[in-house]
Specification:
Helix content is 39%, strand content 20%. It is α+β, with helices and mostly antiparallel strands. The structure holds adenosine-5'-diphosphate and the ligand O=P(O)(O)O[C@H]1O[C@H](CO)[C@@H](O[C@H]2O[C@H](CO)[C@@H](O)[C@H](O)[C@H]2O)[C@H](O)[C@H]1O. Residues 32-117 form the Maltokinase N-terminal cap domain.
Amino acid sequence: MLSFLTSTQPWSTFLDDTDAHQQLTETILLPYVNTCRWFAGKARQQTGIHISAMLALPGTGQQPFYLLILDAHYADGEPEQYLLPLALVADLTDVPDKGVLTEARFSDMPGTLVDAIYVAGFRDALFKHIAANDSVTQPGNSASGSSASGTLAFQRGRGLIDAEAGATLTSRVLPVDSSNSALVFGYALPSQPSGELFFLKLYRKLFEQTNPEVEMVAFLTETGGFGAIPAYAGRFTWQRTNAAGPQPDITLGMMQRMVPNDKDSWAMTGDYLNDFLYAVPNRLFAVKEDVFEKVALLGQRTAEMHLALYAKTDDPAFQSEPFTDEYRRFLTGRFTDLLDRRYDLLVNNYSRLDAQAQRLAWVFMEAKEMIDDFVADFQTRWLGSCRIRVHGDYHLGQVLAVGDHTGHRDYVIIDFEGEPESTITDRKIKHSPLKDVAGMIRSYHYAVSAKLFNSVETEGIDPEKLQIVSDRWYKLIRDTYLDAYLGTFGSPHPMFYDNGEINYLLLIYLLEKAVYELGYEISYRPTWVKIPLKGIVDVIREIEKLQPGGHHRQMASAPLHLV
Ligand SMILES: Nc1ncnc2c1ncn2[C@@H]1O[C@H](COP(=O)(O)OP(=O)(O)O)[C@@H](O)[C@H]1O
Ligand SMILES: O=P(O)(O)O[C@H]1O[C@H](CO)[C@@H](O[C@H]2O[C@H](CO)[C@@H](O)[C@H](O)[C@H]2O)[C@H](O)[C@H]1O
């Protein structure tokens, strides 16, 4: 932190302090957001960031807090909006380095400008307003044009009961590095996490609409009667108005009940893969029976989530729909665009890949024409299945493993915000539920690949042999998951026309997901690039079988699974 901000005004009038805003915009904000995990624009060519609005949140007897709405601009593509809450503090004891923006001197106080999530008073204020179900009217129309008009509106959900609403709770920032920020509230001290009651997600990337997660959680609980998600406890939104009248609300945060969980299913799958891993060097193929039971239970919960999303409703946002021409155009257009971007990314990063990844990348590049044809076929192929709202970014990390006092294990599904790369409109588009199924299948493939290829136990083993055992494990688990998923519907279900379509749609969504992941890994975890590449090559092999002269030309009508 090299910067310094000076102002002749007090912090309490920061909303109108144009000079301080200018200093922030010119020298402080851009370098700062580029250090933040939640800022998704790091790989884009940035042309600037500015404060598009600012909301005030009074602290309880202390300095006010300000919620900055930042507009990030890029050389290409649409700008993005982010939320950054600011506090001025004199004491940095609880603030990690990543929360510090700059030292600052205001006329009433020298201090440090920090991300307000690290300040207990800010977290308390959010919780108290949610519990009180009240709102903070914004002054609007400041000289700088930055201060927001409208209302910062807090809404209390059914998951927050009276006794807890009135209690004095402690809070902390959950140390997870993800796309948003997580605040936790409870009776417990940080050393006793079991007393923690609420999980509040402060959204970082903002959308000029209700956040899809809020809609999904509300529908699943109120209409779908789905129990395997954390209960909704509240939210806060910026209700905007301007001269033309009310504008769509922007969701800034959502609170759910805290789910006491040992770990997510990614970590749990890693644990049961350990037993498998230790057996491999001894030429044993060992999978414990309870692993299959756990995988099957997740298949069942996934199906129940989809049945809840299929529930009868008058709300057009959740009514099921057929595979319309509009959707086909949308999916093929998006897929073609994604493929173009991924081929470019791969070409530009090819020399950074290891030999195994380069071999897989070649197969992918050489299959371009066949993949293009496969995707184009989606435009015209007759499809009798239907589409519903789906989770959209379903993987093992989105499923928490929970247990009750009797030792009974189960799952709770989280993070219904959709795919991080997609626009808000795209996140609300209905798909076949098989899109989520493909997401989870990819995740099992990831789990086994990440474990077997990155462990000391398997270091001396020929990679080709390792690939064969890892494929065996993955296919057994994939089939267990799919059987349990499809078996939960019991009888033919209108969401799936027939087995041929199930296989075809699974291939489409598996390919789309693996191609999406390729970009994610090149940007964030280059050593993992071969995992999605292997997933892409697996689908290519299946598509080849569908080609005239392919080994199994009848694959589309030779079902993997019976519905
Ligand atoms: N209701 C909850 N109870 C307990 N932990 C939770 C809850 N919701 C999320 N978490 C934890 O917080 C992490 C981040 O949550 P997630 O919804 O995935 O956020 P993001 O949108 O930032 O990816 C999860 O991986 C999980 O460990
Ligand atoms: O941050 P989110 O949870 O919203 O999701 C993003 O990050 C995920 C990685 O944490 C990424 O998932 C990919 O890696 C997982 C293993 O770490 C694997 O289980 C998933 O199958 C794989 O897609 C996800 O794609 C991305 O959107």
